[in-house]
Write a structure and sequence with these properties.
Helices cover about 60% and strands about 10% of the residues. It folds into 2 domains: about 1-85, no CATH class; about 100-215, OmpA-like domain (60s Ribosomal Protein L30, Chain: A), CATH 3.30.1330.60. The radius of gyration is 29 Å and the shape is elongated. The protein has 4 helices and 4 strands, in the order αβαβαβαβ. It is α+β, with helices and mostly antiparallel strands.
Length: about 220
């Protein structure tokens, strides 16, 4: 006859597998204790072995968590490089149009990404902001919007304040390299406009940003 695997049986099997490190530890501890100190040592060894087995289980879980965290960090670094490449392409397009005397017709937008809970501008984005500042200075009559965002983790009030700090950091940097502050308009949305509400940890990277874009005549923003 064939045995039918029931949900209860499968659950019991899973529990048994999870208990294996503890049982192994208990058995080896009991044997070692019996050899050293007889029956009393066997009991003590069994207790110690059980604790050792539990510790082994916890260590395995900690290792898996560390690997998951490292994977997320690697993915965020990769996404940061992609964002940087996109900005470089936008700036190169602006340079080409500038060479063709089409600066006034330029439509340029770029994203400045941030680390979790941070409003510090990363060095490679500073380089791109330096180049952007040069184009803004070539268009003294143009208005630019700086929009700050935060990912949806944390309290709403905290995320709103964080997006405000981020957009202010970008504005302050542009002004520090020669941009007229009267050309810069700022707005902060906090976590109210996620790019993808179902994206999870990987998608949060794209929400931690300040978007810089040239404003059309119908756009309004808060300076």
């Amino acid at each position: 006859m064939f045995a039918v695997a029931t949900p209860q049986g499968m659950a019991a099997s899973e529990v048994e597998r999870n208990k294996q490190p503890e049982l192994i530890g208990m058995g080896s501890g009991a044997i070692a204790g019996a050899v050293v100190a007889g029956p009393v040592g066997a009991v003590a060894g069994a207790i110690i072995g059980t604790v050792m087995g539990q510790n082994a289980s916890y260590e395995n879980l900690a290792t898996e968590q560390d690997e998951t965290i490292q994977t997320i960090r690697d993915e965020n670094q990769s996404l940061s490089r992609i964002s940087q490449k996109y900005n470089e392409a936008q700036l190169e397009l602006a340079r080409l149009r500038s060479a063709q005397n089409q600066v006034e017709d330029l439509t340029l937008a770029m994203n400045i990404q941030f680390r979790t809970s941070s409003a510090d501008i990363e060095p490679h984005f500073m380089i791109q902001l330096d180049e952007l500042a040069g184009f803004i200075q070539q268009m003294p009559n143009a208005q630019w919007q700086l929009a700050g965002y935060a990912d949806p983790r944390g309290r709403q009030g905290y995320n709103q304040a964080l997006s405000e700090r981020r957009v202010q950091a970008v504005k302050d940097y542009l002004v520090s390299v020669g941009v007229d502050p009267r050309q810069l308009n700022t707005v902060a949305y906090g976590d109210s406009q996620p790019l993808d509400s179902q994206a999870g940890n990987e998608g949060f990277f794209f929400d931690r940003r300040v978007t810089v874009s040239r404003m059309s005549g119908t756009q309004t923003a808060q300076r």
